[in-house]
Design goal:
Layout lengths: L4 H23 L4 H20 L7 E3 L2 E2 H23 L5 H20 L21 H27 L3 H25 L6 H20 L6 H30 L6 H34 L6 H12 L5 H16 L4 E5 L15 E6 L12 E4 L3 H8 L4 E2 H6 L8 H10 L3 E7 L2 E8 L10 H86 L4 H32 L5 E6 L1 H9 L3 H6 L3 E5 L7 E3 L1 H17 L6 E10 L6 E9 L40 H11 L3 E5 L12 E7 L9 E3 L2 H6 L3 H5 L8 E3 L2
Parallel strand pairs: 9-16, 10-12, 10-17
Antiparallel strand pairs: 1-2, 3-4, 3-8, 4-5, 6-7, 7-8, 9-11, 12-13, 13-15, 14-15
Helix pairs in contact: 1-2, 1-7, 2-3, 2-7, 3-4, 3-5, 3-6, 4-5, 5-6, 6-7, 8-9, 10-11, 10-15, 11-15, 15-16, 16-20, 17-19, 19-20
Length: about 775
């Protein structure tokens, strides 16, 4: 075989690919998928190079000639480079890509194998593809377009979506090398003299760059080197101009006298040097502005920062100054600080299982998420930051194999922080926190000089931050102590108030019990006396028994209320749930009060109840609760006053469940705002117990102070809420009160004492309350829908 330029380049490129194959197998250890695709791409390229040593015009396999075998090899190389790009960019779909590639290569090989023309791979095979259509050629060109274009577009899309400058740099570097490799493959695929050889060289250069990018954590900084090349070119042009222009001027100047000529040349040289320095300075400033480089002496900035933080005792102010200076020095988009509190109690400093809670400071620059994370002492991140005391980049956490064993929770936390560099803050061997910086404003990568400056700032701030944090902790504890003292004082006052309430209850309860007992005792004596005298007739007996029954009922009601409250104390009130309506419950609640409302010339109106949906509730208990609330309104509303009950339906935005709201308003004396919560405590009475009236519904009358307590307990048991709104207490202006009751249409699963009734059981054993629900409202009470 005659050794030509093409065969020489093909042989050398094959040797290069074999060397790259060896490097791929040796240098890559952890990422087996990347190793496979890299080795496959190098092997395909090497085999393609060997195919170039075959005769193009002679059939090798079937009807496939040497040139056709070269085209198939180049196509296979494209497929492998595309799969390698998927893996390198950490994109899913490499298996589907491989399947499509196998189908394409198989179809291309099959058509070329049976092709009698044998045009594939000849010098003019592209020109002969479309006139008429040559199937193997069209299949080859279509595959070249797809398998070369898609990886390049995917790479530029990954560059656009990159959130870290280092990732963007390695992606754009990959895009450049990928473009060179694929462009070289396409040029080699033309098989034309003058394009084949440069194509093989471009392909080898591109493949070498791909291997370099795959085996290296960091690649050549494309952006910085681009600006370096631009600045070097500009300065070179300025230097040439500064030398060449004066020479041209001097050559075209006719000065005969030597003294004048020498003076002119000196002046010309001085002017050229001055113009050169001004132009160079302006060009440097312009390039720095365009590239986003920081101008100025950073050492003086650090000195200024050290002076600025001296004497600052406020923690937030110190953090703000630190972050502002960091932003000025490094021109970062965002920055923050992660506090590192002490490890969990009981963990020694040498215990690798101890865990720290990372808490971001509230003071930050830019959009910094206020989320907490954990960091164990055995974590490679902790070891790098606080044992080695070196800065760590998010790029290293994501791509460096030394951090592949980092816990997923730690990895997710640092990714959510969206920072680029983390620098430890250590004071006298004690970890204080982590100084964080996001990407630069110009999206440039961090240089070793940048990281060194950031570490210097962290070291300068360490002691100041520790002292400021101690001061802040002392102030916070002082504030907490004052708050605790205030709470204790409020609790003391509340206990005193409740103690007074209990005393009032004893006074009222003794009166409530003594009155019916006195009646029972008195009527018993009367019965005994009349019986001894033989004067007891049937009518007298009926009257006495009726009065005794009233006294017993009154005593029984008091005892029943006290038992209900005792059940609430131990959460032992059973609720028997069945379907009912709020309209039915309100009707049953106000029915026993009709005569009393009529006697006091009050009006009661209900609105919006008829259209409300059915609810699942304990009818008897809710009737008791609403009756207590309405009774409270009747007692504290003067004669002739008005009471209104309004119902409505709403959707709870938190639970997404429908709720019924019942508002019971009156024109009474009102309730002091300081008592809005405590009125639901047992035994509490908002007014002087000495004004106690024995009448159940008399104005300002009072019972034992259990009605609202029972009402709240029943409503809470249904998963509902109750509260009161009132401007205040005023017996003259009568500001009134509004009690709000919110009931879920369907009680929550954690509602107390839930016991559902079957419909058949309800119909078979209907109690007196259910029967009474059928009755219409009496004329004394107006009901509106």
């Amino acid at each position: 075989m005659e050794l030509t330029l093409t065969s020489t380049i093909a042989l050398l490129s094959t040797l290069v690919y074999l060397m790259l194959l060896w490097i791929s197998l040796v240098r890559i250890e952890a990422d087996q998928k990347l190793k496979f695709w890299l080795a496959a791409a190098m092997l395909a390229a090497a085999l393609t190079g060997l195919s170039l040593l075959l005769e193009k015009e002679e059939p090798v396999v079937g009807e496939i000639k040497g040139g056709g075998l070269e085209i198939i090899g180049l196509g296979l190389t494209m497929v492998m480079i595309g799969g390698l790009t998927f893996v390198y960019l950490q994109r899913k779909g490499e298996n589907l890509w491989l399947l499509l590639g196998i189908i394409w290569i198989g179809a291309l090989t099959g058509t070329a194998y049976t092709d009698t023309k044998g045009l594939l791979g000849e010098a003019d095979w592209i020109a002969n593809t479309f006139d008429p259509v040559y199937v193997p050629g069209a299949l080859a060109l279509g595959g070249f377009a797809l398998f070369a274009g898609f990886p390049i577009m995917m790479t530029f899309y990954s560059f656009y979506r990159a959130t870290l400058a280092e990732v963007a740099n390695r992606t754009i570097f990959w895009a450049i090398m990928l473009s060179l490799a694929l462009m070289g493959t396409i040029l080699a695929g033309t098989t034309s003299s003058g394009l084949l050889e440069p194509g093989l060289i471009l392909q080898a250069v591109g493949m070498t760059g791909l291997v370099y990018a795959a085996v290296s954590l960091r690649v050549l900084d494309v952006r910085r080197n681009m600006w370096l090349a631009i600045s070097t070119g500009v300065f070179t042009v300025l230097t040439i101009a500064a030398i060449f222009v004066p020479l041209v001027i001097a050559d075209n100047t006719n000065i005969e006298r030597e003294a004048e000529k020498l003076g002119f040349f000196v002046a010309l040289a001085f002017a050229a040097a001055l113009i050169y320095m001004l132009a160079r300075g302006s060009a440097r400033s312009l390039i720095n502005r365009l590239s986003g480089q920081v101008e100025g002496d950073q050492t003086s900035r650090l000195h200024h920062y050290a002076e600025a933080i001296t004497g600052i005792a406020e923690l937030n102010e110190l953090i703000q100054v630190t972050l502002n200076e960091l932003s000025e020095v490094l021109r970062v988009q965002r920055s923050g600080l992660l506090w590192l509190p002490q490890a969990e109690k009981g963990a020694a400093d040498s215990d690798l299982t101890s865990t720290y809670i990372l808490k971001p400071s509230e003071v930050a620059l830019g959009d910094v998420p206020l989320i907490e994370g954990t960091l164990t002492r055995k974590s490679p991140i902790y070891q790098r930051l606080f044992i080695e005391r070196k800065s760590l980049s998010q790029f290293e956490i994501d791509f460096d194999q030394r951090y592949r064993n980092v816990q997923q929770s730690e990895r997710d936390f640092f990714k959510q922080m969206r920072m680029a560099i983390y620098t430890p803050i250590v004071a006298q061997g004690q970890p204080i926190g982590i100084l964080c910086a996001g990407n630069k404003i110009n999206d440039d990568t961090f240089t070793p000089r940048d990281i060194e400056l950031m570490q210097t700032m962290a070291n300068q701030a360490a002691v100041a931050l520790r002292n400021a944090r101690l001061v802040d902790d002392l102030r916070r504890r002082e504030t907490e102590a004052k708050s605790t003292a205030t709470e204790l004082q409020a609790t003391k006052q509340r206990l005193e108030q409740l103690d007074a309430v209990k005393t009032d209850f004893i006074t009222i309860a003794s009166h409530e019990l003594r009155t019916p007992l006195a009646q029972i005792s008195g009527y018993s004596d009367i019965v005994q006396a009349l019986n001894e005298q033989g004067l007891l007739d049937h009518d007298q007996l009926d009257g006495i028994v009726g009065n005794l029954r009233k006294a017993i009922d009154r005593m029984e009601e008091l005892i029943r209320n006290m038992l209900d409250v005792s059940q609430l104390d131990v959460n032992a009130m059973d609720l028997r749930f069945q379907k009912t309506t709020v309209e039915n419950i309100i009707r049953l609640a106000i029915e026993p009060l009709h005569s009393d409302i009529f006697k006091r010339k009050q009006s009661l109106r209900a609105r919006g109840l008829s259209g409300l949906p059915e609810i699942e509730a304990d009818t008897k208990r809710l009737v008791q609760a609403f009756q207590n609330i309405v009774l409270n309104a009747v007692k504290f509303t003067p004669d002739g006053g008005r009471i209104e009950i309004n119902g409505s339906l709403q959707n709870n935005p938190e639970t997404k469940r429908d709720e019924i709201v019942v508002a019971i308003s009156d024109e009474g004396v009102g309730i002091d705002p300081k008592n809005h919560q405590i009125i639901f405590e047992k035994f509490f009475r908002a007014h002087d117990p000495s004004l106690h009236s024995t009448g159940k519904t008399k104005f300002m009358g009072a019972g034992p102070g259990l009605g609202l307590t029972i009402a709240k307990g029943v409503i809470d048991g249904h998963g509902g809420r109750i509260w009161v709104e009132s401007e205040g207490y005023d017996a003259k202006k009568m500001p009134g009160s509004i009690f709000y009751v919110v009931l879920p249409v369907k009680p929550p699963e954690d509602a107390s004492g839930i016991l559902h009734f079957e419909p058949t059981l309800m119909n078979a054993d209907r109690g007196p309350i259910e029967e009474a629900a059928k009755e219409e409202s009496p004329p004394e009470v107006a009901s509106e829908s």
